[in-house]
Amino acid sequence: MSRAQVFFTAGPAELYPKFEEYLQAFVEQQIGSISHRSGQFKKIYQHTDEQLRILMNIPSENAIMFTGSASEIWEKLILSTVEHESFHLVNGSFSEKFYQYAQMLQKHTNVLKKPLGEGFVYSEVEVPEFAELICTTQNETSTGVQMREADIHKLKRSNNNKILAVDMVSSAPIPELDFTVIDTAFFSVQKSFGMPAGLGVWIANEKCLEKANILKSKGKSLGAHHDLPTLWKNAKEYQNPATPNVMGIYILGKIAEDMNKTGIDKIRKETEEKAKKLYKYFEQKSGYSPAVENQNLRSKTVAVINTERPSAEIIQKLKEQNMIVGAGYGSGKDTQIRISNFIANSPEQIDNLIKEFEKF
Amino acid sequence: MSRAQVFFTAGPAELYPKFEEYLQAFVEQQIGSISHRSGQFKKIYQHTDEQLRILMNIPSENAIMFTGSASEIWEKLILSTVEHESFHLVNGSFSEKFYQYAQMLQKHTNVLKKPLGEGFVYSEVEVPEFAELICTTQNETSTGVQMREADIHKLKRSNNNKILAVDMVSSAPIPELDFTVIDTAFFSVQKSFGMPAGLGVWIANEKCLEKANILKSKGKSLGAHHDLPTLWKNAKEYQNPATPNVMGIYILGKIAEDMNKTGIDKIRKETEEKAKKLYKYFEQKSGYSPAVENQNLRSKTVAVINTERPSAEIIQKLKEQNMIVGAGYGSGKDTQIRISNFIANSPEQIDNLIKEFEKF
Q: From A60, A95, A119, A321, which residue has the greatest number of CB atoms within 10 Å?
C-alpha cells in the first residue's frame, strides 16, 4: 500500500515499509485476542527476544523486557539501580528529562551539562566518586547530537564498578553498542523501528539485577509496577507481569526478523550513507547548515539543520509536497528543522527530499 | 471480516466488531506517524475524551488520562494519593495485586479479605480511621464477583473525607458509577472495550489532584513517570507527558463513539440479559453451577462457572468448535471455567456457546 505522506519526523515517524503487512497478519491470526499467559504469546515474545538478540548482538544472560514507553524505563531503571546517587550527561531536552526523573525520585543527582548542539567525548567526563549509575544519551533527539559508541565503552571501562545506562531511544538498532561492556540500554519503537508508539524495550544485564536485589534486601522500595526483579523473572519465561502491548511485541519481532534478513551491517551502512548525504547537502546549501558543528557528534538518525528562513515556512512548503519534516525542539523551534534518517526512510525518500530543497 | 475464532476470554478478549474498520482508518490516515504534539493528535485525544465522558457520564472537572496499562495506574494512584495509609477490599487475585502494590510502595496497608467467590456489601465494611484511600474492585476478574454500584456509592458517602477508588478494569463501561460521588476509577481497553492490550485509562477528580499536590508540597515523591499532577496538566490540554499509545487512544474514541450511537442504556440492558441467560443456563445444567452463590454479586461481564468435569476437557471441546473459553484463575484453574460477557460478545455468540454446551 502506498502512503500519501512521507514522514521525516523524529518519532512518531515513517512506519516500516512492511508494517501494514505485519499488522494484517496480527489481525488475521486474531493475536489481539489471545491470552498473554498462553503458549502462543510466549512464542511471540520468544521470537521477538531472539530476533532482537541477533540484530543488536545481545548476550543470552541479558534480559529483554517490555514496558509502555521508554520514559517509563527512565523511572524503573533509576528506582531499581540507584540507592543514593546518579550521574547524568545532559545536552538536550531528553537527557534533561532523564536527569529530572532522578530528581523527582529524590536521588542525589550529579550532572555534566553541555550547551545545546554540543556533545560528550570520553576524555572530558569525570564521573563523581559515589555515583552508582551513569546515564548517557546515545542520541539526543532534541539537538541531533550523538555520543559515539567508543566513548560510551571507554566511559564504562574506566568506571567498571558503576552501572552504565544508554538511552538509545531514537537510534536503536543503529549504534554498535557492546552489550558485554555496557550494563543497560533502552529504546522505544516509534523511532528507528518504524512502529506506532506504545512500547518500550529495556535490555539489562545481571549486574543491574544484582543491584536491584541489594536495594530490595536493604528494604528500599523499587516501585510496585515493572520493577526490575519482577520484569526480569517474567522475561526469562517470555512473560510480562501485567498484560503488555501484545501487538507491539509481535510486530517488533517481525520487523527485527526482516532487518536480520537484510543484515544489520548493511542497514548501518545505508543509514550512514544517507546521513552523510544529508549533512553534505546542507553544508553547501546556502541558508542552511548542520546544527552540530563537530562532524563526529552528528546524529546518524536525526539530523538537525539551522535555517535562515523561519523553519515554519520550510515545513509548510515541504508539507505541500507531502513531505513531513519536524521543527527544531524547544528554543530551536523557529530556527531549525529536524529530519529523521530512520531505517524506514529509504535512500529514495532522502533523495526526493533533497530534490525538493533544490527547488527552493 | 469474519473471524475464525470467537473469544469468551476475560481479556485479552473478543475484539469489538468494528475494530478492523477503525484500524484500517488508522492506517489509511497514517495516524501511526503523526506527532503526539500536533493539533491533529490533540483532536484525537479530545474526541476520545468527549466520547468517554458521554458514555460514562464523567463530569467536565474530572481528568481522563492515559497510561500503558491499568496495573500502572494502581501504582500511580497510590503514589499520588496516599501519604501513610490505604485500605483494600480483597476477594481475588486482582484486588490482591492492588493491595500488594501498596505494600511494595511501603504504605501502611489495611485490608478486609473475603474468601474467593464472595463479595462485599456496604454494611459489613468498616473503614479504618486513618486510611486515606479506599481501594475497591468493582469486578474481580479472577472470581467473577462484582461489587454493586450502590454499595460503592454508600461506602464513599459515609467516608467523605477519604478518596474512593474503583478498579473497573474488566467491567467498564457497564457499571453505572456516579462520578460526582466516587473520586477515581480506571480500566484497561482489552476487556469490555474489545481492543488489543496496551492502554490504561485513568479518571480522577480534583480531590485526587489536591491530595497529590499536598503530598508534593510536603516533599513526598510521587514517582517520576505519570504522576497525577503531570498527567492531569497534560490531559487538560489533550496531551500526554510522554509519547502515548496513539493508536489505542484513537481506536478507543471510535469505539466509544459507536457505543454512544447505540446508547449506553441499551448496551447495559443487553449485557444484563446475556448475563442472566448465562447464569440461568448453568444453574439448571447438570454438572455445572455458577461459582458465585449470591446472585446480586455475580459479575455481569465475567461469569465464573464451577465444573464437575476437568475444565481443560471442556475448554478443549469448545476450542474444536472455535470457541475460546478461559480456565478458572489460580486455585480454580482445573475446576472452573470463565466466560466473558463483554460488549463484543453478541447475543448470538452467547446463544451459540450455550447450544454447544447442550451437545455435551
A: A95
Alpha helices in chain B (DSSP H): 19-28, 39-56, 70-81, 93-104, 149-157, 206-217, 228-235, 246-262, 264-284, 311-320, 347-359
Q: Do A243 and B105 touch (CB under 8 A)?
A: no
Would you call B250 helix, strand, or coil by DSSP? helix
* Cβ atoms < 10 Å from Cβ of A42: 14
> Where a domain ends, among A261, A288, A316?
A261
Q: Is residue B270 situated within a structural domain? A: yes
The number of domains in chain A is 2
Helix, strand, or coil (residue B139): strand
- Global pTM reads 0.98
Specify whether B82 is located in the same domain as B129. Answer: yes
Query: Of the candidates B19, B74, B324, which has its C-beta nearest A224's C-beta?
Result: B74
- A281 pLDDT more than 60: yes
* Closest by Cβ to B197, choosing from A13, A36, A71: A36
Q: How far is B341 from chain A (nearest CA, A)?
A: 14
- Residue A112's Cβ-count burial label (10 Å; 0-12, 13-18, 19+) is middle
Q: Identify whether A125 is part of a domain.
A: yes
The residue from B211, B234, B261 where one domain ends is B261
Residues of B in contact with A324 (CB under 8 A): 33
- Averaged pLDDT, B170-181: 98
Phi, psi (degrees; rounded to nearest 5) at A293: -75, -45
Q: What mean pLDDT is predicted for residues B127-139?
A: 98
> Is A1 inside a domain boundary?
no
CATH number at residue B308: 3.90.1150.10
Q: Are A64 and A88 within 8 A, CB to CB?
A: no
Mean pLDDT of all residues in B203-221? 98
Look up residue B180 and give its amino acid. T
The residue to which cell 529509504 is assigned: A346
The pLDDT tens digits of the residues spanning A302-357 come to 999 999 999 999 999 999 999 999 999 988 999 999 999 999 999 999 999 999 99
Q: Are B11 and B190 in contact (CB under 8 A)?
A: yes
Tell me which residue range forms the domain holding B166: 19-261
Element (H, E) at B66: strand B63-67
Whether residue A25 is found in the same domain as residue A119 = yes
Residues 6+ apart with CB under 8 A from A204: A62, A63, A65, A77, A183, A184, A228, A232
- Joined grid coordinates for residue A90: 545532559
In a domain, A283, yes or no: yes
Taking residues B323-345, report their average pLDDT: 96
Give residue A298's pLDDT.
98
Q: List A167's β-bridge partners, or say none.
A: A137, A186
Q: What is the 3-state composition of chain A as percent helix, strand, coil, each rounded to the nearest 5?
A: 40, 20, 40
Partner-chain contact B223 A223, CB within 8 Å = yes
**Structure-block grid coordinates of residue B179:** 462520578
B169 in the same domain as B283? no
pLDDT higher than 60, residue B339 = yes
A216 and A272 within one domain: no
Would the CB atoms of B32 and A20 count as touching at under 8 Å? Answer: no
> What CA–CA distance (Å, rounded) separates B169 from B147?
13
What is the identity of the amino acid at A257?
A: E
